[in-house]
Design a protein that fits this description.
mainly beta, 4-stranded antiparallel β-sheet, 1 helix, 46% strand, globular
């Protein structure tokens, strides 16, 4: 039986709301975006290393490490002041960070920033409904290569494909859009529809451990309380559909919903993360709960206990766990852990099950973000979960 165990709370905690924490891809450090600063913590000692202030006039909402910046770490920050900052660590003093450049253009709050896998492209999204893409053309030199304005609402999140220059964006308009560059011009190649309310976050399936027969997949979470997995339709299937369809698709690529994860949250789901190591998915949201899911092969036993998952025992072991007022626990505990389609039928293609969950992970506060990382725990490097909450705390957990 898997159990979520607390490892540490990063110290000192933030004095105000913490929005997001992002672990460096190579170094044992994590950056946390807060109301008044960007804080860099150690994933070895779990203590504060640096506090980055200045540059922005309002809260830092998002941050992302530039891939390949191991020797001289570089991080991008997005702020409520509508600007994006690029910071680099000083070589002579590891505690000091240089504000290298500011990128302007958005007309309202910046909600998310993300680097492409190659580290040359930076995507930014804003409350003004836009998605911007900048290209680094030299040291401290960026050029705007695209301003994408097809969303009809606040854009909450952007995420780059781990191999391709394919960008996903999630919005208040309930849609997910995929963007590519074709003939020197960026455009929307697909619109993923299915969510019934704001899509708060999207994340691509990691390269490691991916089922090559399935291809690229994307996970999303929403205000509608669902977590959905999307996949690209096989070429043969797309061709057959285009011949039979009366309405021609305007999308260059056709994607479909592969399935939904068991519905465990009773309030808005703000963040999902897909592990590179265990290949599990973790989710957090307004109910203060951490939920961890695992994918099983098609045809596996559907009974939770037969698969080694006892959903009652998988909870955090307390008899006083908090659920939503007036909502019985059974209302969001699927009997077999399999997702259902709109007709209540089990979908064989969606074989995600709940591994474990932890209630009230940040007390009575909402959890804004979740991420997987590696940290030194009990003398060895282990996979951990990082949660960031409204209480200003960043907590480290492990699944045992």
């Amino acid at each position: 039986m898997a159990v979520i165990m607390p490892v540490a709370t990063l110290t000192p905690p933030c004095a105000s709301r913490a929005w997001l924490s992002t672990a460096h891809p190579d170094l044992p450090i994590v950056a946390t975006a807060t109301a008044n600063a960007l804080r860099i913590y150690s994933l070895t000692s779990f203590t504060l290393l640096s506090t980055i202030t200045g540059g922005h006039k309002r809260s830092i909402r998002s941050a992302a490490w530039q891939p390949g910046s191991r020797k001289k770490p570089v991080i991008a920050t997005g702020s409520f002041d509508a600007s994006v900052g690029i910071w680099s660590q000083e070589e002579d003093d590891k505690e000091e960070w240089r504000f290298a450049i500011v990128l302007d253009g958005c007309e309202s709050e910046v909600k998310s920033v993300a680097w492409s896998a190659g580290g040359n492209l930076l995507a930014v999204c804003s409350r003004d409904k836009s998605v911007w893409i900048w290209e680094e053309v030299g040291e401290d030199d960026f050029e705007t290569v695209a301003v994408l304005q097809e969303h009809e609402g606040d854009v909450k999140c952007v995420a780059w494909h781990p191999e391709e220059e394919l960008l996903a964006s999630a919005s208040y308009d309930d849609d997910i859009r995929l963007w590519r560059e074709e003939v020197d011009d960026w455009g929307c190649v697909s619109v993923l529809r299915g969510h019934e309310s704001t899509v708060w976050a999207v994340e691509w399936e990691p390269i490691q451990g991916r089922n090559q027969d399935v291809g690229s997949r994307l996970v999303s979470c929403s205000d509608d309380g669902t977590i959905r997995v999307w996949k690209k339709k096989p070429s043969q299937q797309r061709q057959q559909q285009s011949r039979l369809s009366i309405i021609r698709s305007t999308s260059v690529e056709e994607w479909e919903e592969e399935g939904q994860l068991p519905k465990q949250h009773v309030r808005t789901i703000y963040s999902v993360a897909w592990s590179k190591i265990s290949h599990r998915i973790a989710s957090v949201g307004g109910d203060g709960k951490i939920v961890v899911y695992e994918e099983h092969s098609a045809g596996a036993l559907v009974d939770g206990e037969a698969n080694g998952v006892d959903h009652d025992a998988a909870r955090n072991g307390t008899d006083d766990a908090v659920t939503a007022p007036g909502v019985p626990d059974e209302a969001h505990q699927p009997e077999d852990g399999l997702s259902k389609d709109s007709h209540g039928k089990q979908e064989e293609s969606s074989s995600w099950r709940v591994v474990t969950e932890y209630d009230c992970a940040h007390g009575v506060f909402e959890i804004n973000h979740v991420a997987w990382a590696k940290a030194k725990v009990d003398g060895s490097e282990q996979e951990v979960i990082i949660t960031t909450g409204d209480d200003g705390e960043v907590k480290i957990w492990k699944v045992s």
